[in-house]
Every structure is written in C-alpha cells, then in structure tokens.
C-alpha cells in the first residue's frame, strides 16, 4: 500500500492483519492478527478460516482460485458485505453521518456507547430481506468486536467503534496485549 493518503478507511481497517505488509492477507496472518489482539486459539482459528475463505475470491477478480485464500487489501471494497451499517461507502471511505446515526438511533442507555441489547437492535435494523449471508457477516463482526472490546459493564464505546472503523483499534489492542505480557 504505497500512498497512505490514498488508502481508504476500509483498507486501513484490514491492514493490521497484513502482518508482512505485502498487500495480501493469508489465513496465517489473519490468525496471527487475532492472536495479537487477544483472541483465543479457537476464535483466531475460526475467524482466519471464515474470513479468508469468505473474502478471498471477492478481492481477487480475474485471478484463478487459490487454496491459500489470499485477501488483496487493495480490493477489499469488493468484499464489503450487504446488510451493513453504511459507515463505509462503496469505495470503502468512512461516512461520518452514518457512524453518528448508529448512536443517535440506538444508544439509549448511554449516548457514547452501546449495550449488548442496543447492539442487537442496531444489527437487526441493518438487515436487508433474505440476505442471510449479510446478516451472518454483520452479526459475527459486531459480536466479536463486542466480545473483545466491551468494558466491565458490557458497553461498547463509541471511541472504540470509531477506532475499529478507522483502522487504529487493532494496533492499539495488540500494543496493550504485548505490554501486558511484559509485566
């Protein structure tokens, strides 16, 4: 990824998992990334398998099938699933109005955070009819984010969600986990 200014928010979101910075994410890198942010062996393994199998073909237009299931970061916008929040536009750019809308419509307990129930209602509100794959993708993403990032009261905070969208969250989590290991 040459020019950091030309990189979309969606590309930044996934670049953490490109562990060797070559523009391609293999399942082993997805696994390493999940482990680095504190996910257990099972979650990291399952995530690596399903993410790479699910996104590889979509990001490799015109290329032959590969059992290595690489994801091309430059084409990640092509793998954007349906039934999503709309916070990333079709080019993978961050849409701040859609981000703010999440909290305006769904954050009732606390203006700057979502409870598990509010998160569930938010996910349901994004569902397109009979879009089961999109529902599953959205549900999985949000449940993993909530599981890994909720506070001691079960709240998923706005700044955490924003950091997930802008690509800064995963490195921050990895740095925190590495610092904990040193203690």
From TrEMBL:
GO terms for molecular function: calcium ion binding; monooxygenase activity. InterPro entries: Caleosin-related, EF-hand-dom_pair. The keyword Membrane applies. It holds the Pfam family Caleosin. The chain crosses the membrane at residues 36-55. Belongs to the caleosin family. This is Peroxygenase. It comes from Salvia splendens (Scarlet sage). The lineage of its organism: Eukaryota, Viridiplantae, Streptophyta, Embryophyta, Tracheophyta.
């Amino acid at each position: 990824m040459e020019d950091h200014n030309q990189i979309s928010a969606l590309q930044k979101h996934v670049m953490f998992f490109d562990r060797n910075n070559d523009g391609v994410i293999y399942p082993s890198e997805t696994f390493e990334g999940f482990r680095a942010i504190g996910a257990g062996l099972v979650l990291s393994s399952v995530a690596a398998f399903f993410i790479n199998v699910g996104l590889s073909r979509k990001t490799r237009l015109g290329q032959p099938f590969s059992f290595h299931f690489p994801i091309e970061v430059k084409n990640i916008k092509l793998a954007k699933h349906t039934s999503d929040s709309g916070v990333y536009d079709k080019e993978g750019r961050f849409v701040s109005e859609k981000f703010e809308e999440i909290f305006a419509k769904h954050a009732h307990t606390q203006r700057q955070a979502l409870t598990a129930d509010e998160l569930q209602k938010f996910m349901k509100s994004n569902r397109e009819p009979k879009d089961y794959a999109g529902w599953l993708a959205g549900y999985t993403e949000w449940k993993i984010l909530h599981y890994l990032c909720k506070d001691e009261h079960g709240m998923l905070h706005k700044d955490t969600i924003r950091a997930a969208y802008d690509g800064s969250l995963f490195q921050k989590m990895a740095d925190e986990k590495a610092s904990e290991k040193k203690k």
